[in-house]
């Protein structure tokens, strides 16, 4: 697979990854390497990575606890302190090996430590390969509120080695698949139709689909890096999806949802809202709902939970001037941004999902 240029980053795939990284280390005068992992990637991914790392530079491993619950400013403080204690300087390089929590948080730590050090993302989950590690968004949650603190900053390199997916649980694979399904809905039937029968997909097919998903996101981000227009389309399903994810994260009576599991619900709700407001096909809405429920099952959301979930919409990052802005579909591959939606229609969408 050819490498992909994305703004100030280069994205490399599989065998090319380590050659590109080692050449990067030779070319730049880094003082030291710091590798950020969680307990899972420390065990399953770091040994594979270190076997391919060819450098005489000293390196240190910094481990944080896994999970969205640890994607906080407090965790950042711990990593910043570790960097200081281990004598990191402005010529240090940070390598983030993990899923979206690691690449989001690690990128934020790197681009704020001493006003910015270089960093490389090595995504190890499907979600981080096709979404979190690409596009320059870094940051952390504010309590249960998703990605409220952060900056847009490009890594030097993104290294996508799909062999890391071999150790990934199925629920994590499904979580990443949700973002790929989203890419299909917002870009068109050519890509969308490839997901209609997952039983026919081989691992080689998956590698190709990952590559195409990265291209889709790269093309959007390259045209609109700071989310003034086109990049908002990547938030399809995320307005309500993030609110649902935050609600389940903060409610001790609910089982925490993975990002993709919440986004799938958000996409079904957004399709229904689209069918009410933009003329999106009701037949397509019903088909998408059934397809997604076949793949993911149904999340139980009681009527009494609609209001507290909807209260969280006010924190969505696309909002402006007091308006809650949705991304909707007019057709598969045709989006409409900055749409306002009455509460009554959102409640209808929840009812439709729970039918």
UniProtKB/TrEMBL annotation:
- Give start and end of each 3-dehydroquinate synthase N-terminal domain: 62-174
For this record, an example GO cellular component is: cytoplasm
EC number assigned by the record? 4.2.3.4
Gene3D superfamilies given in the database record: 3.40.50.1970, Dehydroquinate synthase-like - alpha domain (1.20.1090.10)
Protein name as annotated: 3-dehydroquinate synthase
Broad enzyme group: lyase
PANTHER family per the UniProt record, alphabetical: 3-DEHYDROQUINATE SYNTHASE (PTHR43622:SF1)
**Source organism:** Allotamlana fucoidanivorans
Keywords noted in UniProt: Cobalt, Lyase, Metal-binding, NAD, Nucleotide-binding, Zinc
Q: Which residues form the signal peptide?
A: none
Which GO molecular function terms does the record list? 3-dehydroquinate synthase activity; metal ion binding; nucleotide binding
Single GO BP term: chorismate biosynthetic process
Q: Which cofactor does it need?
A: Co(2+); NAD(+); Zn(2+)
Q: Per the record, a Pfam family?
A: DHQS_C
The job of this chain, per UniProt, is described as: Catalyzes the conversion of 3-deoxy-D-arabino-heptulosonate 7-phosphate (DAHP) to dehydroquinate (DHQ).
Which superkingdom heads the taxonomic lineage of this protein's source? Bacteria
